[in-house]
UniProtKB/TrEMBL annotation:
GO terms for molecular function: L-amino acid transmembrane transporter activity. The keyword Transmembrane applies. It is found in: Membrane. InterPro entries: AA/rel_permease1, AminoAcid_Transporter. Gene3D superfamilies: Amino acid/polyamine transporter I. One of its GO terms (cellular component) is membrane. Keywords: Membrane, Transmembrane, Transmembrane helix. The chain crosses the membrane at residues 12-37, 43-66, 87-112, 124-145, 157-176, 196-214, 235-263, 283-309, 330-348, 354-374, 386-406, 412-429. Pfam families: AA_permease_2. This is Serine/threonine exchanger SteT. It is a multi-pass membrane protein.
Amino acid sequence: MSREEVKRPLGILSLTALVVASMIGAGVFTTSGFSVATLRSPWLVMVAWAVGGAIALCGALSYGKLAHRLAESGGEYVFLSRFLHPAAGFLGGWVSLLAGFTGAAAFAAVTFDLYAWPADSRPAWLPAKSLAMLLVLVVTVFHAFHTKSGAIGQNLLVGFKLVLLVAFLLVAYSLFGNWQGGAALSRPLDSPPPNVLLDFASSVMWISLSYSGFNAAVYVTEEARGGSATIARAMIYGTVVVTFFYLLLNAAFLFAPGVQAIAGKSDVAAITAQALAGEWFAWLTRAMICLGLASSVSSALVAGPRVYAKMAADRLLPSQLATKDSPPTNAVLLQGTGVLLVIYFSGLQSLLSYLGLTLSLFAALTVSTLFILSNESHGDVPKTEGLLAPGIFVSSTLILAALAAYHRPYEAIATAVTLLSGIVVYLAVKRFSSN
């Protein structure tokens, strides 16, 4: 093994797998039911998924250019701090912690609850979201006090999402003759909604959450063999693969059971499985999805608290969250409490809107730094032809975000509150440090 392989253990295959695994989460198993109820046409929903994939690909190309300018691990926090302002970097880290970890874990947990026990068969003694909260409590205790056990449990859950995708697609397309969607296309559900542009923008914002992991490789740039060139290729390959899978998967969701069956429903994968092969396949699909979603919650409660602990060690958060030992118990307990609060006070669709809007806006802000003249230590701004993908990503994200915020103002207010709270914390930290 060469010295570079020891210092930089991640090759193109590992990095591409990281991107794919980071992108595939709860969103793809829930979004199309809400989107088809809003847009009233399965074809418009498929276009929305394709547009989301195209925007994500432009984002992957853009983040590749950012990695070329600054080959350091850290993602948005590093890019915004270096190229814009330390305050912007802190806000990028703040949004990643609140939306990227806490919000995403809550979304995965609520989706777990919906798939674990369908609403139409749930007994009265089992309230909505109770299974989501139970999952978070168990995982929090697991990771707060039992590092070794937590790692073993996490390893057992890793990989189920990809296995599910491949297995589900093989079964779905082998039973293509059982698809019922064609008969539903002429029904009233397909009449255009009154605000098609606003509804389409909201749907793409929901869908953008499912693509939000396209930039995962930039968080480990310093561990990549081949440096920024390998990072750029991995993000492109991963995004193309996931887009292809998403289009195949959503074609099955939308056309196998018929749009009437999934419109407004969150457990679209289970409904599709039921239509394809009956009750046994539906419950098997639910079980596999629940395992994958449990791994998503577990991953967030592993990664997030360690970021809190690192920021505390850097005196950006209270020192009680820092720890010299493992695990960072206080940070894990704080993260788990935050996830429980988000689950209690929000619904699945509002979480979709909030997370899609917030994460997309900060990705656009990060990419926009490519247009800022860099100093000598960071190289030159890309040539005009090299700014096409960043231009498409930033402009399309901002336009869609503006339309979605106008259409769903409450989620936009939640995004604004997140940013304002980050500014308050940053100013407080700066004042404390100066004193």
